[in-house]
Design goal:
Shape: elongated
Number of helices: 35
Strand content: under 5%
Number of strands: 6
Structural class: mainly alpha
Amino acid sequence: MDVLSSTQSRSIFLKQKSTNAVPNLQSCVRVLPRSIDFCLTHQLFDEIPVSDTFAWNNLIQTHLTNGDPDRVVSTYRKMLLRGVRPDKHTLPRILTAACQTNNSFFFGKQVHGHALKLGLSSDSYVISALLELYGRLDGADAAKLLFCKSARRNSVSWTLISRLYIMEDKPGLAVDMFKQMVKSKAEIDPLALVTAIGACGILKSLPEGRNVHDIARKSGLEGDVLVSNSLLKLYIDCGSIKDARAVFDRMPSKDVISWTEIFRGYVKNGGFNEGLKLFRQMSMEGIKPDSLAISSILPACGRVAAHKQGKEIHAYLLRNGIDMNVTVQNAVLDMYVKSGFIDSAAKIFAGMEERDSISWTVMILGYSLHGQGELGVDLFCEMEKNSRVQIDQIAYAAVLHACTTARLVEQGRFYFNCISFPKIRHHALMVALLAHAGLFHEARVFMEQHKLEGYVEVLRALLDGCRIHRNMPTAKRVIDQLCNLQTLNADNYVLLSNWYTSSAKWEMVDKVRETIRDMGLNPRKGYSWIEFRSKIHVFGTGDVSHPRSEKIYWELQSLMKKIEEEGTMLNADFSLHDVDEERECIPIGHSELLATSFGLISTQAGATIRVTKNLRICGNCHDSAKAISKIVEREIIIKDPSCFHHFKDGFCSCGDFW
């Protein structure tokens, strides 16, 4: 409190009192309520010979603004004792405070009674405050009952009932209220539209949302930034990025929320490049992104090919002093993990002053995906010691993944048993752990105990172990089960065909291929891509369309000759590989090797090569990449759906377990 101003205020009152002047309450109260010394304020009110309602209202508002509902109530009671008559400005403030105090509903009903006695119960401000009181303390239906009895209904009261239903997780009733509001010819304002649109978003109802959108258009409020932003969120949450973009393009003015919503929508739907394009366009138009905008666009950079954009955004964060809250730091952490820079992610994590469960989980899973499962398990042990962080099912899934990568069976068993209600994801990880460790009997027993035979995710986890340990009999049983469970999945038939090929059962191979043709199934094709000079270069199996194809193949042939001279034997087994075309293609024609070769001939010596493949890397290419990394003395990182393979000095970070 400013001591001088307090003393001056008191002297004014004392001077007026000594001269028997009637105090100018309006001017004095303008000074007093902003003071922190409420005791002095009340003392001065006691010394005022005449009190008017305005002064009391001003004092009540001050207490309300300062979050002190108990003082509001005590001031109101003192006001009544002094014989001051409350007015239509007093009661809404008292009712607001009543929602926040002990025994508040009883007191609120008393104030409702005062409103009736004073003839203020039909005032629109008082009605709104009463609706809020009953809605919060007795439920939306009680508020609606009062609303229906009210003779005066306006846009505020209609919207308030809708909002109360949303707070009770009854969005359908909120939409119904809006429809009744429209039918009653009540004035439609932006807040009513935003509330109704929000309810449609919760329902994920595109038809209802479009109806509200049509009303907004007819009301001439579609261009209101609040309404447009709500429509953007609605269409994005309902999965209609086309409708969202149409709204965005028609907006007469856009704020940072508008831009954030639209590129969040593109990122959510896999349109990473368009999301990044919009982010750059926002910056060019002079709109500074906030922390939410940054955390929304960073997932678009969580790809090997987009790591440069991710680094640029991180640098932008640091240069412009944008709030680096835990959500933003988690987004940066996740971006580095998913774009292949695990060391950078580790530095970010180490420098975080505040970490939540997401921070820990992202880093644990990151270590596992990059072949450092032991570090992931160690980090989980540290997480357990932090009493402020709650370990959830996602964190347990991350540590089970790390145990699988490191093949730490006993620790994996222990953590699985710590999960109160394990989901199929946890069961699949446990099967993967046992299968990766070669414990197929235990894996089968575990599956029988938990009745997991009918889950595709679990069977594929078992099949991965069969691929690693070449357990062909078990693999055949699993493939048959997958074909029965997913009769229209071409990849299962490719697996079956390759299994028969490895067993030289050519008649069965022809039969399976005929089945694929007859059913009109299309096996997935393998593609790999690499970023060079801000352009993505994509390669298919046996691809010769690239302008530098001749040099790419020549480089690979030279490397294969050196590998052969060194006596390195490459894995030629495709028996459990699920990419159809790669068995028939020469090894150097596989997409991941073509992309790697392009990287080698296009970049400076010593530069890391970063490649992404849409399907699992085959054994031959895996062995080739290990050998090539040793010959060229470079690190080669190939990301496939299972993990990041860091090839360096003739070894892979996965330890040949993938």
